[in-house]
């Protein structure tokens, strides 16, 4: 049977190659999709470790524990938390609650161009440690520092998108923004940040200046802390005590979630989506093999009749065509596995990623091609076994 199977495949090499293409594409897509999914998940995990795993947020929950506390964060909160081992930068911030008619404008209220350049933009009060922890990329100027905080300077830092909305293109003319009746000199335009992207859509002013002008909304203040890799859980445990040794319950520190849990969720979501796509490609390949094999059975009716006339039984004919289909499926699975693996490695090299491909997938893919070939050949083999010798010879 094996020799007849090999002879049947080599007798029509072009048709055999076209028949195997379906399995090559299906198995290759299957391996490539699963490999790229694992590679992308690993890359997401790496980026998570580099940024989110070094970030701690401290919330002011004093309003939930005591009604007699107006502002839980002390004035030297940045210095207290910065002294903790593993902390890189720390700062307090909150969104300023503006009254009616206190929108952010590029011109003074009541000026000759009143209303021009006005925008419904949030105002964020942030100490200098917040901007350092956010990791800004400054396109023009600079961000405010500890001196601006200490002297309550009326300066502002804005994102590039906010600058476009306000019509500010350069800092050479010392532009200003107006929040209600208060003017703030724009000293920096930020192009991008590593964390806390909402700062790009806000007007950031020094914490001390905002506290003097508008006060601190109770329960709205938070602290952003950037840490060294691996120090975030420990910093989250120590920060409330460092801020208020007498009442650490006034603060709630939120450490980063476990990266393994995040990776598991991301991998599961991507696997479900792309496994469905790979299975669809494999199904299309199976239909292609079945169709080509069925056409081959119809063309080889005379050969089947001759075999039956010489003594071959139905099980012999069925086994021969199943063996041919399985051999083509296995061959296509091997080639598809190789092409899928090459695709994963090539994409990883182009993107400067680390290729990740489970050995079980590589080992099982050729067997998957074999099973695909067997399933695709069942109906054609059954049709071939039903051919009557006399009718086949008359054709």
Condensed summary:
This protein is α+β, with helices and mostly antiparallel strands and 395 residues long.
Describe this structure in words.
By secondary structure, the chain is of the alpha+beta class. It has 14 helices and eleven strands. It has helices spanning 2-11, 13-50, 62-65, 77-82, 128-134, 146-151, 160-166, 207-214, 232-243, 259-299, 301-309, 314-351, 359-385, 389-394; strands at 55-60, 87-95, 104-105, 123-126, 136-141, 155-159, 176-179, 182-193, 203-206, 222-227, 251-254. The model is unreliable at 111-118 (pLDDT under 50).
Q: Compute the gyration radius: what is it?
A: 35 Å
Distance between the termini: 25 Å
Give the % helix: 55-70%
The portion of residues forming beta strands comes to 15-25%
Order of helices and strands: HHEHHEEEHEHEHEEEHEHEHHHHH
User: pLDDT average, as an integer?
Assistant: 81
What's the total count of β strands? Answer: 11
Q: Number of helical segments?
A: 14
Would you tell me the structural class of the helices and strands? alpha+beta
What are the low-pLDDT stretches, counting only 5+ consecutive residues below 50? 111-118
Coarse shape: elongated
Biggest pleated sheet? 11 strands, mixed
């Amino acid at each position: 049977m094996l020799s007849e199977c090999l002879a049947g495949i080599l007798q029509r090499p072009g048709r055999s190659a076209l028949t195997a293409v379906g399995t090559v594409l299906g198995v290759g897509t299957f391996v490539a999709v699963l490999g790229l999914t694992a590679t992308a998940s690993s890359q997401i995990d790496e980026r998570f470790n580099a940024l989110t795993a070094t970030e701690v947020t401290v919330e002011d929950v004093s309003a939930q524990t005591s009604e007699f506390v107006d502002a839980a964060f002390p004035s030297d909160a940045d210095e207290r938390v910065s002294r903790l081992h593993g902390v890189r930068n720390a700062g307090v911030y909150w969104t300023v609650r503006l009254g009616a008619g206190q929108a952010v404008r590029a011109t003074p209220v009541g000026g000759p161009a009143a209303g021009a350049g006005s925008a419904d933009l949030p105002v964020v009060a942030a100490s200098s440690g917040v901007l350092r922890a956010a990791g800004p990329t400054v396109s023009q100027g600079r961000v405010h520092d500890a001196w601006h905080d200490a002297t309550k300077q009326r300066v502002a830092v804005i994102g590039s998108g906010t600058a476009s909305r306000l019509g500010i293109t350069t800092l050479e003319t010392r532009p200003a923004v107006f929040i209600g009746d208060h003017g703030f000199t724009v000293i920096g335009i930020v192009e991008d940040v590593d964390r806390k992207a909402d700062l790009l859509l806000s007007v950031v002013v020094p914490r001390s200046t905002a506290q003097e002008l508008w006060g601190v909304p109770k329960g709205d203040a938070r602290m952003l802390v950037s840490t060294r890799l691996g120090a975030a859980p420990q910093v989250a445990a120590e920060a409330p005590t460092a801020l208020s040794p007498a009442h650490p319950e006034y603060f709630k520190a939120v450490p980063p979630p476990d990266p393994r849990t995040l990776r598991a969720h991301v991998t599961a979501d991507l696997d479900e989506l792309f496994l469905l796509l790979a299975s669809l490609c494999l199904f299309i390949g199976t239909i292609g093999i079945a169709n080509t094999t069925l056409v081959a059975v119809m063309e080889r009716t005379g050969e089947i009749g001759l075999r039956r006339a010489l003594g071959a039984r139905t099980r012999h004919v069925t086994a021969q065509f199943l063996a041919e289909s399985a051999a083509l499926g296995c061959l296509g699975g091997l080639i598809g596995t190789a092409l899928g693996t090459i695709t994963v490695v090539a994409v990883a090299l182009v993107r400067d990623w680390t290729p990740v491909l489970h050995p079980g997938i590589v080992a099982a893919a050729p067997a998957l091609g074999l099973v695909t070939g067997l399933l695709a050949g069942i109906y054609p083999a059954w049709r071939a076994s039903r051919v009557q010798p006399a009718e086949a010879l008359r054709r």
